[in-house]
């Protein structure tokens, strides 16, 4: 099966950095690099520039996701994951990184691949205000209504 690709104009605001790219065929995320060295203390969050700006076509969104390896090995995540890049945004892509580790600082160097950009088609809604919504089996049940699992804090 062939994949469909959309062409997206991209500006390198820092031409020495690696152009966002997919590591493997079929990858959904193109890695974004840090523009500067940054050290995150345990629990600290920092807005990190990537040196890239893009022009998404209308009908597309860019989603900035954490990288699972950095999350698992070091506790590095994106605070607002996934970050939303609107089609009309022409500024530099930036990533609000968070060190979730309670003990160890995370040292990032300029050029390190810190997050990944997923491009998706997106639907916009026309919101139609009504007095009542249709009935469903789930109804208003949520937030664990189907059950969860027991932990020390939930056992009485
Ligand atoms: O992780 C992110 C999230 C957002 N953006 C940029 C692109 C996006 O189009 C813009 C606004 O993002 P968002 O709508 O999430 O932020 P906001 O706090 O609602 O700001 P605004 O009032 O400008 O919409 O900021 C990033 O570069 N990285
Ligand atoms: Mg917004």
Automatic annotation (TrEMBL):
Asked if DNA damage is a keyword of the record, the answer is: no
What pathway does this protein act in?
Pyrimidine metabolism; dUMP biosynthesis; dUMP from dCTP (dUTP route): step 2/2
Tell me its EC number(s), please: 3.6.1.23
Keyword Membrane applies: no
CDD domains registered for this protein in UniProt: trimeric_dUTPase
Cofactor annotation: Mg(2+)
Q: What is this protein called?
A: Deoxyuridine 5'-triphosphate nucleotidohydrolase
Q: Which organism is it from?
A: Paeniglutamicibacter kerguelensis
| Designated gene of the protein | dut
């Amino acid at each position: 099966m062939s994949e469909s690709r959309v062409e997206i104009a991209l500006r390198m605001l820092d031409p020495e950095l690696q152009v966002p790219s997919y590591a493997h065929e079929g990858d959904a995320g193109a890695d974004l690099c840090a523009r500067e060295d940054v050290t995150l203390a345990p629990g600290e969050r920092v807005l990190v520039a990537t040196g890239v700006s893009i022009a998404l076509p209308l009908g597309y969104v860019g989603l900035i996701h954490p990288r699972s390896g950095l999350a698992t090995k070091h506790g590095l995540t994106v605070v607002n994951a996934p970050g939303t890049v609107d089609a009309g945004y022409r500024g530099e892509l930036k990533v609000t990184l968070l060190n979730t580790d309670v003990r160890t600082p995370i040292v990032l160097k300029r050029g390190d691949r810190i997050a990944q950009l997923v491009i998706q088609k997106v639907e916009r809604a026309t919101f139609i205000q009504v007095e009542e919504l249709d009935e469903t089996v789930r109804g208003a049940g949520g937030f664990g209504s189907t059950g969860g699992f027991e932990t020390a804090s939930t056992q009485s």
